[in-house]
Design a protein that fits this description.
seven-stranded mixed beta sheet
Length: about 500
Amino acid sequence: MAWALKLPLTDEVIESGLVQDFDASLSGIGQELGAGAYSMSDVLALPIFKQEESNLPPDSDNKILPFQYVLCAATSPAVKLHDETLTYLNQGQSYEIRMLDNRKIGELPEITGKMVKSIIRVVFHDRRLQYTEHQQLEGWRWNRPGDRILDLDIPMSVGIIDPRANPTQLNTVEFLWDPSKRTSVFIQVHCISTEFTMRKHGGEKGVPFRIQIDTFKENENGEYTEHLHSASCQVKVFKPKGADRKQKTDREKMEKRAPQEKEKYQPSYETTILTECSPWPEVTYVNNSPSPGFNSTHNSFPVAEGNGSPNHQPEPVVQAADNLLPTATPQDAQQWLHRNRFSPFCRLFTNFSGADLLKLTREDVIQICGPADGIRLFNALKGRVVRPRLTIYVCQESQQAREQQTKHENGDAAANTFFVYHAIYLEELTSAELTEKIAQLFNISPRQINQIFKQGPTGIHVLVSDEMIQNFQDEVCFVLDTMKDDTNDGYHIILK
């Protein structure tokens, strides 16, 4: 009787244990799936599905991939089993991507002996940043003028033909290659993951990128527009040698984990295999209009024309002001933020019009953007113009002589005579800067001005140096006299 009573209890224990194990496995699956953004192509790329591909119908989209791309950089050991691999790269370092022909015999015969075109991109992995990718990259362009996000290391690359890098697409490169020949392309990524984080106080977690390769074949017109294959992998980019330190840190963390915990993580592989993904859409973030980062106008010093009459007098403006107007729409406000190097905060002010931004107090802006950028943004919103370090006024002596001659011929009184002076604004307080500004005034090349002298006591000519300019009084007036150099086509300028 006692034995009969024990049996149900044992069943209950067994059943309870099975339920707990099942629940635990389900919760683990839920956590793992929730940890990363999954797409159907990612799921189908898992090994268990690859083994079953031979059983799929011939017309299925899940066929053997024609190409395989291998990034020669180690994957991180701190990635869970069913998550996508993560690879750390060093900024500016050349990394090899091997372009492998994975076709079966007789597959895609139309490309046999012909070239295909591959386009490599560095894009955002985070979906939130993908929505504002155009703004993010334009902000990067403004902060790093002349730099590219992605470059090809052509001398190290093998088998690529006609490599190209569009100057308007900083994160894209393309080239032709023959699948039947050995092909390796070396790439360099120049942006780092922390450049796109919201705040920069140190220690921020950098955003992941994706390296995506899209391959095309020729159509009937000889254009490479017919899509063949696309694959990508997840990467993070660190400052030089930062990827090595991060890899070492992850490896040390994994070594300290218990054996049961280690089984939940992927091993670190020496190379990264790019997994199949959807082709990148043709419509990219590059538009036909000039980018906001390059729309700002830079006024150079106006050159005097003719005799320097009042009708041609230059405006005493230091630089064209780019003030935000209260009537600006949210789109205009976004472009203004880009032009003035506040791109990291564009998402925070997405729906702010010009009036909304101008209503913010100094404390509001500092609280939103931090002390350094907050003060800079507040000053930019209020349109505060920085005064030049030194202002001098100059007049050409030949003009004075003409005015005096006209006065004597017409018998005019001295009170009716006036001379037109031009303002020169100096920031660096150097003789080279003064030479350049005077050359602009005379509409000549700075190389044509050999020396600048200042007339001293008893009419001596003192060579103008940087130290002398630094001791000029603000808003001092000079009469400029020019003297031809007998040895060449240059001139000497005398400040009287």
